[in-house]
Design a protein that fits this description.
The chain is mainly alpha-helical and 139 residues long. It has nine helices and no strands. The radius of gyration is 18 Å and the shape is globular.
Length: 139
């Protein structure tokens, strides 16, 4: 039902996602996703011009990446996570308010954190403790 709703509410986005996920136009779609993440405009914008802008989403594999991550790859992404986790640690030590984004930056530094059963533990911890302490959601 969710896929049918996507085709009726945002047909341009549904077509874009179908082409992106099918890997028919692999390099073109990857370039489009990078352009969309870095400058906010690319072929996706042309396909989704008539769709409701409030219902558009970015490609899931780019959703949690920063622009530095996208352009520099995993090494730059790791350095970016170290910087963000250090800022989060500084917030803890100075009594500042820790956010979910700070938590996730620190979590990404843990080896094996994306193994499903370990990821479930991290997500559960984030949900329960974060909601208990009213952590704001990251942008």
């Amino acid at each position: 039902q969710r896929q049918l709703d996507e085709w009726t509410e945002t047909p341009g986005m549904a077509l874009y996602n179908a082409l992106d996920r099918s890997d028919t136009l692999g390099l073109i779609m990857e370039g489009s996703n990078i352009l969309d993440k870095t400058i906010g405009f690319g072929p996706k914008s042309a396909l989704t011009i008539f769709d409701d802008p409030n219902k558009l989403k970015e490609a899931s594999r780019f959703k949690n990446k920063s622009v530095a991550d996208t352009l520099g790859g995993p090494t730059v992404g790791l350095a970016n996570d170290v910087i963000d986790a250090t800022k989060g640690l500084k917030k803890i030590l100075t009594g500042g308010k820790l956010s979910r984004g700070d938590y996730r930056a620190g979590e990404r530094l843990i080896p094996g954190q994306n193994i499903p059963y370990i990821q479930i533990l991290g997500n559960t911890f984030e949900r329960h403790v974060g909601d208990q302490y009213s952590w704001p959601n990251p942008k």
